[in-house]
Amino acid sequence: MGAALDAFVEQLRERVAPAMLHFDLMYNNLGSFAPIWCLPAAAPGANFLVNWLKTRRAGVIHLVRPDLAECFASHVIAETRGVYHTGNDADAARDMKLTLGAEQAVSYMLPILRTRRYVQRAFVGHVRFLEVAYPEIIGGPAVAPAQAERIARLAGFGAGEGARMFGPSPLRQTAPDKRALVTNFEDMERLANSLQRFVNDG
Q1: How far apart are CA 44 and CA 95, in angstroms?
Q2: d(CA 166, CA 188)
Q3: How many CA atoms lie within 13 A of 16 on its CB side?
Q4: Which domain covers residue 147, as residue numbers?
Q5: How far apart are CA 157 and CA 149, in angstroms?
C-alpha cells in the first residue's frame, strides 16, 4: 500500500507539480486519500496516512481555527445565505438574525475538536510539522508575512522567501461581525469552551 501511494505521488509530482507538490486535506473530505484515512477512533499510530507522511518526512501544515464559535457561526451564516466565498462584499454585509441550535453546534464542533487533538497527538515529535491559525494566517489580500516565512522554512526555502511563495489570497468573510447576526453567540462560546474541556479531559 505504501509503494502504491509512493508511485501515485511520484506521478503527480512529475505531471502536475514538479516544483512543489502539495495536498490540501480536510478533516471530513480527503478526496483521493479517503481510502487510506481512518477516522480518529483508534490511536494515531494505527492511521496509515499519518504513518506514511511521517516515514516520508513530509512537511505537514495543520491549519486550525481556534475560535469554534466563530467557525460554526460562519458555517451556518454561509449556509443560510446560500453563498460561501463568492468575492461579493455585498454578500458579507447582508443583514440577518440567526439563533444557533445547541444540538447542531455539538455535532459540528465535537468532531473538529476530536480530530484536531488527534492530528496534534499524531505528529508530536515530527520535525516537519507546523501549526498555523486562522485568522492569523491572513494578512489583507495575502498570506500574513510572518506565517508565510514559517511555511517557507518548512518547505526548505531560505529567510525572506515567504513572500515569493504566495500570490494574492483574498479572503471574504462570511460576516465581519457575527455577534451582530447571531442572537445567542455567547451561548455558543460557552458551549465551545465546555466541549474543549471535555475533549481535553478525555
Answers
A1: 43
A2: 34
A3: 9
A4: 2-201
A5: 9
pLDDT of residue 91: 62
The yes-or-no verdict on residue 128 having pLDDT over 80 is yes
Q: What local confidence, expressed as pLDDT, does residue 16 receive?
A: 87
Among 75, 113, 72, 76, residue whose Cα is nearest residue 195: 113
DSSP state of 84: S
User: Residue 139 in 3-state DSSP?
Assistant: strand
Q: What is the pLDDT of residues 149-185, one digit of tens each?
A: 999 999 888 888 887 888 787 766 677 788 889 999 9
Domain count, the chain: 1
Provide the CB-side half-sphere exposure for 167 (13 A, CA). Answer: 0
pLDDT band at 125 (very low <50, low <70, confident <90, very high): very high
How many C-beta atoms lie closer than 10 Å to residue 29's C-beta?
A: 9
Cβ neighbourhood burial of 137 (10 Å; 0-12, 13-18, 19+) = buried
For residue 133, the SS3 value is: strand
**Long-range residue pairs from 132-141, CB within 8 A, at least 24 positions apart, any chain:** 132/61, 132/62, 132/63, 132/64, 133/63, 133/64, 133/65, 133/66, 134/63, 134/64, 134/65, 135/65, 137/63, 138/169, 138/171, 141/168, 141/169, 141/170
Distance CA(167)–CA(184), nearest Å, equals: 38
Looking up cell 468573510 gives: 173
Residue range 181-197: average pLDDT?
Answer: 95
The pLDDT of 78-97, averaged and rounded, is: 68
C-alpha dihedral (73, 179, 103, 189), degrees to nearest 10? 100
